């Protein structure tokens, strides 16, 4: 149940139409499958997932959420896509893993469970919502003092438009056309500003790059296109 709708109905419909293909590693979600080991290992190396209470905001079909459960975390995933959550729950039956999936906005979940999580992840989502600062605020509310919040999103500059939109969607066809809108991309400075405003301190900034020749993703210092930010909530 959700009362706060910080979402674009067209975005929800777009992902709902593809929901049945979420766990197909050769589908439109192939990039998520390809980058998941990278982001999972990074998160685990930072916080040690085993035994942690973790929330995945905008969990979709559960690729990251379920992989964190495999690492021993107690995972809750929230999303506003009912079909994607159905796929996530169905995959749990196939994998035998355990996770809680809720049809709820980040803002409503923050009102219901403030400070309940050791770790909050919000990956590949901020660039798809009308008010990303509201999501950042909710994440800060949901994590306990001293806990960690992980974000990943797309930078906004000519290079990111060329690589993430023209390259990924039209040339390499890694993603369906229309997946990203340039105006909704977020500069690291903007995300860091929104985080500071709600008591989150930026602790690490990494870039994620794709080599079209080797077809391999890697983490590094180049944050011009995709980037990941680790924040710690003030004590």
UniProtKB/TrEMBL annotation:
Gene Ontology process terms (BP): methylation
Function: O-methyltransferase that catalyzes the 2 O-methylation steps in the ubiquinone biosynthetic pathway.
Gene3D superfamilies: Vaccinia Virus protein VP39
Uppermost EC category: transferase
Catalysed reactions listed for this entry: a 3-(all-trans-polyprenyl)benzene-1,2-diol + S-adenosyl-L-methionine = a 2-methoxy-6-(all-trans-polyprenyl)phenol + S-adenosyl-L-homocysteine + H(+); a 3-demethylubiquinol + S-adenosyl-L-methionine = a ubiquinol + S-adenosyl-L-homocysteine + H(+)
SUPFAM superfamilies in the cross-refs: S-adenosyl-L-methionine-dependent methyltransferases
CDD domains reported for this sequence: AdoMet_MTases
Name of the protein: Ubiquinone biosynthesis O-methyltransferase
NCBIfam families in the cross-refs: UbiG
Domain of life, source organism: Bacteria
Keyword vocabulary terms for this entry: Methyltransferase, S-adenosyl-L-methionine, Transferase, Ubiquinone, Ubiquinone biosynthesis
Gene name of this polypeptide: ubiG
Residue sites binding S-adenosyl-L-methionine per the record: 39, 58, 79, 123
InterPro entries recorded: SAM-dependent_MTases_sf (IPR029063), UbiG_MeTrfase (IPR010233)
Family label: Belongs to the methyltransferase superfamily. UbiG/COQ3 family.
One Pfam family here: Methyltransf_23
E.C. designation(s): 2.1.1.222, 2.1.1.64
GO molecular function: 2-polyprenyl-6-hydroxyphenol methylase activity; 3-demethylubiquinol 3-O-methyltransferase activity; polyprenyldihydroxybenzoate methyltransferase activity
Pathway where this protein functions: Cofactor biosynthesis; ubiquinone biosynthesis
């Amino acid at each position: 149940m959700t009362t706060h709708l910080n979402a674009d109905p067209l975005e929800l419909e777009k992902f709902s139409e593809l929901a049945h293909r979420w766990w197909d590693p050769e589908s439109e979600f192939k990039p998520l499958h390809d980058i998941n080991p990278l982001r999972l290992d990074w998160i685990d190396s930072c916080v040690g997932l085993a035994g942690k209470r973790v929330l995945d905001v905008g969990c979709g079909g559960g690729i990251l959420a379920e992989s964190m459960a495999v690492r021993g975390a107690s995972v809750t995933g929230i999303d506003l896509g009912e079909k994607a959550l159905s796929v996530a729950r169905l995959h749990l039956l196939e994998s035998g893993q355990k996770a809680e999936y809720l049809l709820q906005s980040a803002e409503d979940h923050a009102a219901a469970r403030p400070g309940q999580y050791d770790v909050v992840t919000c990956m590949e989502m901020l660039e798809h919502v009308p008010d990303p600062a509201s999501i950042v605020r909710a994440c800060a509310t949901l994590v306990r003092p001293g806990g960690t919040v992980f974000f990943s999103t797309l930078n906004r500059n000519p290079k990111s438009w060329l690589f993430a939109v023209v390259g990924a969607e039209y040339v390499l066809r890694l993603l369906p056309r229309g997946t990203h809108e340039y105006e909704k991309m977020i500069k690291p400075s903007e995300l860091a500003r929104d985080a500071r405003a709600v008591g989150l301190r930026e602790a690490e900034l990494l870039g994620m790059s794709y080599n079209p020749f080797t077809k391999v993703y890697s983490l590094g210092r180049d944050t011009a296109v995709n980037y990941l930010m680790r924040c710690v909530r003030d004590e």
